[in-house]
């Protein structure tokens, strides 16, 4: 077997498609399925303006239904590909493949070892929910021929979700201690750093000790709090309301981020996101974060919550990701189940799709 040098690409690098799973009455969306379907239709419509989307469906009936819903909303169906797969829920950021790509720019997608599909254990965020079918999703998609012939699946008996890690594509990983420590309470920071560096081919791991969102099931996933952007930049969720219970913790996180340094020793360029007004559901605070955005080929899809801060967040993202169109996707129905736009999507790097 040939050995190919691999790396973990940044989200803003070229993509072949976005992977999602269609919400059904057998998922946790059942009680508000109509609202959530509307969000998914808006999401697919936005994605297909820029690139293809792969939609997991549990059976032919759901596929036919989803096709009609999308087509009737004038979605470009030439850019929609359905694949049958069993799943518990639709949080593909955490159950989908964490893909490494060949360092050889001249390599082809069909070359052996051009891609590595890291298939970590998905435990429903530490056993909070049943996730047995989600845990098998990557293997099912691989066996179904969704990925190019050069994609090799690597199973890792270690709980790690895609939303828990963020890379700059150049060897630096950003994550939170709260999440990884919750998943692996007996592991030291040093041992976790070594494992992540090895599996994800990283030169260093930056840890944040602060930051959380009320209503978040993930134990402080980094993709709800802070994200790398091109040119040594970090976009992060700020809170300027001193009376909000998040203020002290998010300010401490902002101070941590400001103290981080690039491999060359410089400060990162920082882009704080505005703070939306509290969104409550039967008295329960929902986790509304603008940091949970998705980068596409030529665009950034950002979660919109019907808040005056939506437009201000779009302006910040336009500065952090210059040259990309900023598209607002209505995501208020998603945060009812404690996640948002980035959480329900997984990008597939260029050349990975068969």
Indicate the mean pLDDT: 95
What's the assembly state of these chains?
single chain
Helical segment tally? 11
Judging by the overall fold, what is the CATH architecture? 5-stranded Propeller
- Tell me the number of structural domains: 1
CATH homologous superfamily identity:
L-arginine/glycine Amidinotransferase, Chain A
What helical percentage do the residues reach?
25-40%
Query: How many beta-strand segments?
Result: 19
Globally, the shape reads globular
Structural class: alpha/beta
What would you report as the Rg, rounded to the nearest angstrom? 19 Å
Low-confidence stretches: none
**Largest sheet, spatial ordering of strands:** 1-5-6-7
């Amino acid at each position: 077997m040939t050995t190919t040098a691999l790396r973990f690409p940044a989200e803003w690098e070229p993509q072949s498609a976005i992977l999602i799973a269609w919400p059904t009455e057998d998922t946790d969306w059942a009680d508000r399925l109509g609202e959530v379907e509307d969000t998914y239709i808006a999401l697919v419509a936005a994605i297909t303006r820029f690139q293809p989307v792969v939609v997991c469906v549990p059976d032919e009936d759901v596929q036919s239904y989803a096709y009609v819903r999308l087509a009737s909303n004038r979605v470009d169906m030439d850019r929609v590909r359905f694949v049958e797969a069993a799943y518990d829920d639709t949080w593909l950021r955490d159950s989908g493949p964490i893909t490494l790509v060949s360092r050889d720019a001249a390599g082809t997608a069909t070359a052996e070892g051009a891609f590595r599909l890291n298939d970590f254990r998905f435990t429903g965020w530490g056993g909070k929910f049943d996730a047995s079918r989600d845990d098998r999703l990557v293997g099912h998609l691989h066996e179904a021929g969704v990925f190019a012939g050069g994609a090799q699946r690597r199973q890792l008996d270690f709980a790690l979700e895609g939303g828990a890690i963020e890379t700059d594509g150049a060897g630096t990983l950003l994550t939170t201690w709260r999440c990884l420590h919750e998943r692996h309470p007996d592991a030291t920071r040093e041992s976790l750093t070594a494992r992540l560096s090895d599996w994800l081919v990283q030169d260093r791991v930056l840890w944040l000790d602060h930051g959380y969102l009320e209503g978040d099931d993930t134990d402080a996933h980094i993709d709800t709090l802070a994200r790398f952007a091109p040119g040594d930049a970090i976009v992060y969720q700020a809170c300027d309301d001193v009376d909000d219970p998040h203020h002290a913790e998010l300010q401490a996180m902002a101070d941590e981020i400001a103290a981080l340094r690039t491999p060359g020793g410089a400060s990162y360029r920082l882009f704080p996101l505005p703070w939306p007004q509290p969104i409550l559901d039967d008295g329960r605070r929902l986790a509304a974060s603008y940091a949970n955005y998705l980068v596409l080929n030529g665009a950034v899809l950002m979660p919109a919550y019907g808040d005056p801060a939506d437009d201000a967040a779009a302006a910040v993202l336009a500065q952090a990701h210059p040259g990309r169109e900023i598209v607002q996707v209505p995501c208020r129905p998603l945060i009812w189940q404690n996640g948002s736009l980035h959480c329900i999507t997984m990008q597939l790097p260029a050349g990975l799709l068969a």
